[in-house]
Amino acid sequence: MVLRIFDKEHIRPFFALIGLFVGICSFVLFDDRLVAHEIWMGTLIIGGLPIVWQTARGMARGIFASDIVAMMAIITAVLVDQPFAGAVVVLMQSGGEAIEAYGFKRASSSLRGLLERAPKRARRKGDGRFDEVDVSEVRVGDILLVRPGDFIPVDGTIMGGEAEIDESALTGEPIPRGKKAGDRVLSGSIDLNGALEMRADRLSSESQYAKIVALVKKAQEEKAPIQRLADRYAVLFTPLTLLMCALGYWITRDTTAVLAVLVVATPCPLILATPLAVMCGINRAADAGIIVKGGSAIEQVASIQAALFDKTGTITFGEPLVDAVVPLNGESADRVLYHAAVLEQYSAHCIAKSIVKRGLESHEVLGTPSDFHETPGRGVSGKIDGEVYLVGSSSFVSEQTGIDWMERFGAEVDRIYSQDKVLILVAKGRDLLGFIVLSDRIRPAAPAMIQQLRMLGVKEIAMLTGDSRKNAEVIAHLAGIGQVEAELLPEEKVGFVEKMGQRYFPVMMVGDGINDAPALATATVGMAMGASGTAVSAEAADIVILFDDLSKVAEAISIGRRMLYIAKQSIGIGIGLSFVLMCVAASGMVPPAIGAMLQEVIDVAVILNALRARE
Ligand code: ADP
Ligand code: MG
Fold first, then answer.
1. 94 near 12, Cβ under 8 Å?
2. Beta carbons of 64 and 231 less than 8 angstroms apart
3. Pairing of strands 460-464, 483-485
4. Are 280 and 610 spatial neighbours (Cβ–Cβ below 8 Å)?
5. Is the CB of 393 under 6 A from ligand 1?
């Protein structure tokens, strides 16, 4: 992209550069010291005023940031009549601000691109024809026509037709997926080749695409924490600079030495290099499909000590298949499945989806339940034809009915139920109707990812699940996780995260479900599986993995590490060199003009170093 110099942010450094250059020309070519001096002084005053004004205003509001040294250098340069050095500081400071503004503008241009790609129009069926309407007018239940090449306007279900659907904008998955009647489609994906009739299941504002845009927006708006790392160093650096100024004056009894110290101290590595490295790291992560909400998250993820994982939907695919339906007490398997499916229509849990899908295979239509209630991470209840039904884990159904069904049917269960299955109980009133056995596959990337975390120095790894211990232990063993906490309620997951937080810092929690959201918000770094997970969990998390790929967890840590290493290295090099120069300057041996140029060399080196975080 061409840097447009006449933007507001660019005009100041451009002006300072021209002023310096014209002054140098008149000095070198025409040997006219006086004119050069006047030009530099003009540049210093005109270019420096806004910086002094800005910083003073910030100080009046109680903000003591790293630009204070630059402000002092500018004022001192005017007072001791050394305009060249002062003008270089103006260039440095305003150039820094311009680069920062450029970075954020670029970040928001990627957001604009995302917004431009958002579906805008839909074709809605009414009176036997299709009318083109704005997507915001689409209501849940509307029947829509999607033609080949169209965006899917809102999340919904295909009613008729078949097509290859390109979901790459949402999931990063480049290979299109064939979809047909009954399959779900997400807004923002593209119909490549077939005409589809679909039913709208969600409003446009609640559909997948809108959620992703909102997430990215939020991630980018959180600008403030980006400077945290830098400000920690600024707190030490500014007083040190003042001390060196005093020392310089004491040694030389000359204000020129004070200016020289201020000029070489202008802490560009802090003002610029750190935010630049952090921004590069965040962009780098975004390219890999990892949305980081703010600078502190990427900084913290770099040094994770304990990593906690949810099971269903995180370590496993969260697409369990119904293996068997086991009726009890003379019920038919079909009735057990039917009643479970009717209730589960109202739940967004992955187990619910599988049960509903199975139910629809043998029933054209499912009835509607009333008084539906979901207990996240445990099960659901509701009324069908006036009778109360329960579907959920053994502990949930046992608790609700007041009977320990596992004790009563333990032998039966052991016969039908091998260890790596999910067991769901279906009850009517206080009677158990039967079991539904599902199996969920572990994500193949899980064991390697866990191993990688160990190699990256994560000290404690545990799995937290709402599922039964039996199944949880099998999955944890396959994944290579030693510690398992099973049958946890959402608040118990929070409790465990807090307990870990007392021993380790920072703690990361990775999850996908509604029942994980509180734990994600509690952990130092919450990481959500964005593609398959629930919106609530993505909202609660600090980092969202857009693609359904577990290896991204380790990748996020690696990217954070590299970013932090480069940022610290830049700070170290910058402050170290500045300090050496400051010592020399305090002795009065460096004229401010030379100091300014030396400092500029350090700046460029440090900025170039920070930009390495991009790769
Ligand atoms: P986690 O993600 O913590 O591993 P889940 O979200 O799978 O746990 O919930 C734990 C258990 O709660 C499930 O194994 C299941 O027994 C039960 N459960 C939760 N929601 C439902 C539901 N909608 N229908 C049936 N059972 C459910
Ligand atoms: Mg889960």
1. yes
2. no
3. parallel
4. yes
5. yes
Q: Which range is most confident: 81-95, 282-296, 407-421, 535-549? A: 81-95
Domains of the chain (ranges plus CATH)?
A: 120-153+155-202 (2.70.150.10), 291-316+443-558 (3.40.50.1000), 319-441 (3.40.1110.10)
The residue length of the chain stands at 615
Dist CA 197 CA 209 (whole Å): 20
**Tally: H helices and E strands in the chain:** 22, 22
Give which of 164, 139, 136, 131 is closest to 150, Cα–Cα.
Answer: 164
**CA-based end-to-end distance of the chain:** 18
Identity of the residue numbered 316: T
Q: List pLDDT tens digits, range 308-335.
A: 999 998 999 888 999 999 999 889 999 9
Tell which phi-psi region holds residue 389, choosing left (phi > 0), alpha (psi between -120 and 50) or beta.
beta
Separation between Cα atoms, residue 562 and residue 544, nearest integer Å: 19
Cα 593 to Cα 590: distance, rounded to the nearest angstrom: 8
Q: How far apart are CA 337 and CA 379, in angstroms?
A: 15
Is residue 312 lining ligand 1, measured as CB closer than 6 Å?
yes
Say whether pLDDT at 306 is over 80.
yes
Task: Name the residue of 351, 375, 389, 509 to mutate for ligand 1: max ligand atoms within 8 A of Cβ.
Answer: 351
Cβ contacts of 436 within 8 Å, gap of 6 or more: 322, 324, 325, 326, 336, 337, 340, 355, 391, 423, 424, 425, 426
